[in-house]
Amino acid sequence: MHFWACGENTEVLKAQNEKEVKSFGPGESFGVPYRCLTPKNMKNVLVAGRCISTDRPVNGSVRIMACCLTTGEAAGIASAMSAEKDANVHHVNTDALRRLLRETGAYLP
After folding, report:
1. Residue 41 lies in domain
2. What is the number of other CB atoms lying within 10 angstroms of the CB of residue 97?
3. Residues 66 and 77: beta-carbon distance below 8 Å
């Protein structure tokens, strides 16, 4: 198991999240691209929550607590993934990041 799971069993985390999170149907939410979390020209900085970079129409959706939680989870896992490789958050494999987020029960549209 990778250290970013903090020793917890991913199945336990996923079960806990499924009890607490209501999933939206198709078209009911925006996806947040990983690049919203990675400031340009900064090698080891990730932003999450309300300080991510978005267009104005999307800002109303991403500033809610559920999205802040998910972007925080993504930033934490991405930083751990980056630390295992070349320590540049811009080089994180986003397919692997999404897979890890889903394995721990994070909501991704």
Report:
1. 9-15+30-103
2. 19
3. no
Q: Which residue type occupies 94?
A: T
Number of structural domains (the chain) is 1
Question: What's the token pair of residue 93?
Answer: 């494999």
Residue type, 3: F
Question: Quick count: other Cβ atoms within 10 Å of Cβ 77?
Answer: 22
Task: Look at the chain and count its residues.
Answer: 109
pLDDT surpasses 70 at 13: yes
- The tens digit of pLDDT for each residue in 76-109 reads 999 999 988 777 888 899 999 999 999 988 877 7
Task: Give the CA count within 13 Å in the CB-facing half-sphere of 84.
Answer: 11
Q: Does 88 fall in a domain?
A: yes
This prediction has a pTM of 0.69
- Which amino acid, 75? A
